[in-house]
Amino acid sequence: MTKKITKKITKAVFPVAGLGTRFLPATKASPKEMLPIVDKPLIQYAAEEAVAAGATELIFIIGRNKRSIPDHFDKSFELEATLEAGKKTKMLEDIRNILPKNVSCIYIRQAEALGLGHAVLLAKSVVGDEPFSVILADDLIDADKPAMQQMTELFEQQGASILGVEDVDPSETASYGIVDAVEVDGPNVLELNGIVEKPQPEEAPSNLAVVGRYILTPEIFTCLENVKPGKGGEIQLTDGIAALMEQQKVLAYRFDGKRYDCGSKLGYVKANVEYSLKHEEFGTEFAQYLRDLTK
């Protein structure tokens, strides 16, 4: 049997134009994606995950007051000169190697907050007719093999759009897009029959929630262009995916890893605590501090 030939995914889209109102006043002048988990901002974790999955073009959909994101991934001559003069070699290496040299960053302005689907649609001119990934930085996933790498490997086998999903408590379905899906390759790979945006528990088709990881085929752009805008003129990505399902197979994938909802204050604090416990520089000392604190 001839092996299916599938294009590699080299483009990753990061919708980062949101206002981050749940973290005000911290996000009044700084993007929520620049909030640190210990010593790295959320957007860097997301970019590293994309690069580990093979991305070489990172497409950031940004809004006003987001200049610190391009600045973070840009070269800082003054800072590098200061660190070099102070012989702070480790810090110098860290900021010089935020991204590999073969990775480029592209920034597209979303002038109005018109929904996640609209943000993804803005990437069309750069993505073209290739499959691509979408990563929402405030969903931080800790995994031995990065979640997006798991999904790109599945894409290479299946050649279909994939939504990252996880089981949530049935009482939480109203906070997520919930999928109606059937297993096609064990319990972790499912084919979608439908997707419902934020259903009440009694109306939810399952408790499998879509989280901030997607691999999408380029046909999604035509679907999004034809989506009828909803409240506030917003274009929902879930509506585009529902339309895509009418044309081609769409999969859901239960990734292996632990997700932290860093769009919520509690999830953000949990991520900082658990990443601090694993930190090679002070993890042991921090664990002792927590033990002493809780005596």
Q: Assign the CATH topology of the largest domain.
A: Spore Coat Polysaccharide Biosynthesis Protein SpsA, Chain A
Proportion in helices = 25-40%
The CATH homologous superfamily of the largest domain is called Spore Coat Polysaccharide Biosynthesis Protein SpsA, Chain A
Q: Order of strands side by side in the largest beta sheet? A: 8-11-9-10-12
CATH architecture of the largest domain: Alpha-Beta Complex
Beta-strand percent range: 15-25%
What is the count of DSSP helices, taking H or I runs of 4+ residues?
Answer: 11
Largest sheet: 5 strands, mixed, barrel
* Gyration radius, in Å: 20 Å
DSSP strand tally: 13
How many domains in all? Answer: 2
* Name of the top-level CATH class of the largest domain: Alpha Beta
N-to-C SSE string, H for helix and E for strand = EEEHEHHHEHHEEHEEEEHHEEHH
For the record, give the distance between the C-alpha atoms at the N and C termini, rounded to a whole number: 64 Å
Shape: globular
Structural class: alpha/beta
Query: Which regions contain 5 or more consecutive residues with pLDDT less than 50?
Result: 1-5
Mean of pLDDT: 90
Protein name: UTP--glucose-1-phosphate uridylyltransferase
Keywords: Nucleotidyltransferase, Transferase
Catalytic activity: alpha-D-glucose 1-phosphate + UTP + H(+) = UDP-alpha-D-glucose + diphosphate
Pfam family, one: NTP_transferase
